[in-house]
Design brief:
364 residues, 11 helices, single chain, alpha/beta, globular, Rossmann fold, eight-stranded mixed sheet
């Protein structure tokens, strides 16, 4: 058989292989660009009407702390210095900083808890050119717990709370090996890979599903040691008490999809509690963090913001934006949901009591 005949016979397979490789390379490039935009560094949003430290600082103090996470230095603040009930380490959601949850954190402080709120990689006051990946929240929580347990907690029981991105980290925190008395996961996902598949489908439809393998591959390459850690496995491998909450109208993390709570049948029965918030507002991704009245007030602000965009497009004059920002009562906008806060307070109190009892029991 001559060389020409051999090449002719293999021409189609070679062409198909080349086209497949080109398509794969293009898909990886598209995926990398998509992920890079989604995980880009986020500082305080120009249109934010959330309450931050300056809105609650009167009569309060806080201590600034820095600690390493990978190659970056993260910044956190200790609130409620001198509190005796326990230390709550808080992991925030993606595209925010811990200050976006200031009213909830101050509620805990006002009820006797010390709180260590930190900004994750690529967020707020912390270093990092990007937020890296959907598992970076767990890497950063690992670093924050190591620092808090060694330098801040003293004899206090350490508890974990997280929302969304941080909710995954809180749910998976038992796998980190730190001495924690309990953890509360709010609107958390079970596994970064499951969350990526769900988000790809929502964002790009059927095409997004087809890109899922490339999205997952990009995640694994970008993420650290916890790239594929499943929160269900972390919970089941420990006896750390866990509170898992979710909204039944969550449009970000589907309560029957990638959410931790969706896997409750696979989670150990002992020591795990669940709470579902219902309704269009209180059942949304972040809606149950604030009161019903605050949700209504928030809707007014969002409607007025949209009216400005409808009028000016993306080029809203500074004067119009500043007038918009100045008219809202930020504390009213972020009034905590008492049902959630009392649920957390009760759960943390029981966890702290159990941990203290174990620490004081005589050795046999």
């Amino acid at each position: 058989m001559g060389i020409a005949t051999t090449l002719k016979r293999h021409k189609l397979p070679i062409a198909v292989a080349g086209a497949t490789a080109a398509a794969a390379a293009t898909s990886m490039a598209v995926t990398h660009s998509f992920m890079a935009r989604g995980m880009a560094r986020k500082d305080r949003r120009a249109w934010s009407v959330r309450a931050h430290w300056e809105d609650v600082c009167e009569g309060r103090t806080r201590e600034r702390h820095t600690f390493p996470s990978g190659s970056n230095q993260l910044t956190g603040y200790l609130y409620g210095q001198g509190s005796t009930r326990g230390l709550v380490v808080f992991a925030h959601g993606i595209n925010h900083s811990h200050q976006a949850y200031m009213t909830q954190l101050m509620w805990l402080v006002d009820h006797g808890w010390a709180v260590f709120g930190y900004d994750a990689t690529g967020c707020g006051e912390s270093q990092g050119d990007s937020q890296v990946s959907l598992s970076q929240s767990l890497d950063d929580l690992d670093a924050a717990l190591a620092y808090a347990c060694a330098n801040l907690a003293g004899d206090l029981p350490v508890l974990v709370m997280g929302h969304s991105w941080g909710g995954y980290a809180a749910a998976a925190s038992p796998a980190l090996g730190h001495k924690i008395a309990g953890a509360a996961s709010l609107s958390g996902y079970r596994n970064p890979l499951l969350m990526l598949v769900e988000t790809s489908g929502k964002t790009a439809g059927p095409g997004g599903v087809l890109l899922s393998p490339f999205v997952m591959a990009n995640h694994v390459m970008a993420a650290g040691a916890h790239a594929t850690l499943d929160a269900v496995d972390a919970i089941n491998s420990s006896d750390v008490p866990m509170l898992i909450t979710h909204g039944d109208h969550d449009a970000v993390i589907d309560i029957e999809g990638a959410a931790v709570i969706a896997a409750r049948d696979a989670i150990r029965e002992d020591g795990v509690e669940y709470h579902v918030f219902s309704g269009h507002d209180l059942g949304s991704h972040s809606g149950f963090l604030i009161s019903e009245a605050a949700n209504s007030y928030w809707a007014l602000a969002q409607a007025e913001q949209q009216a400005l965009f409808d009028r000016y497009g993306s080029d809203v004059p500074d004067a119009a934006r500043n007038a918009y920002l100045s008219q809202w009562d930020r504390l009213r906008m972020c009034e905590p949901n008492e049902e959630l806060m009392e649920l957390l307070d009760d759960f943390f109190a029981r966890c702290a009591k159990t941990a203290t009892t174990k620490d004081t029991e005589p050795a046999l």
